[in-house]
Amino acid sequence: MADNWLTSLQTATPQEGYELAIKLSRMAIKYTQPSADVRDKLRPEYGENADALIAVSQVVATNFQTVAAANAYWK
User: Fold this and answer.
1) 49 Rama sector, left if φ>0, alpha if ψ -120 to 50, beta otherwise
2) At how many degrees (to 10) do helices 50-70 and 36-47 cross?
3) How far apart are CA 6 and CA 24, in angstroms?
4) 64, 13 in Cβ contact below 8 A?
5) Residue ranges of the alpha helices (H) in the chain?
6) Considering the domain boundaries, does residue 34 fall inside one?
7) Is there a domain that residue 1 lies in?
8) Domains in the chain: how many in total?
9) What confidence score (pLDDT) does residue 2 get?
């Protein structure tokens, strides 16, 4: 993927930081499984699986920690 979408981890607010964390998480899936057809096929399986949804939340939380640290916790 040649798309240069991540130019900085710096964000103006924690809300923007959280949205960036979600984008980081989503892009990791896109890079891991580049086929949109396959992702669409799998979505119903994990979309109704509590363990999978909790795992997604954990990944987003980890990415949010990274973004928060990069922004000096918005101090």
Assistant:
1) beta
2) 110
3) 9
4) no
5) 14-32, 36-47, 50-70
6) yes
7) no
8) 1
9) 58
Please report whether residue 7 resides in a domain.
Answer: no
Residue 58 maps to a domain: yes
* Domain boundaries, position 23: 14-74
CA 43/CA 74 separation, integer angstroms: 34
> Cα torsion at 42, 44, 49, 53 (round to 10°)?
80
The CB density around residue 24, as the number of other CB atoms within 10 Å, is: 19
Nearest to 67 by CA among 5, 29, 27, 12: 12
Residue type at 57 in one-letter notation: S
For 10: left if phi > 0, alpha if psi spans -120 to 50, otherwise beta; the answer is beta
pLDDT digits over 32-73, tens only? Answer: 999 999 999 999 998 999 999 999 999 999 999 999 999 998
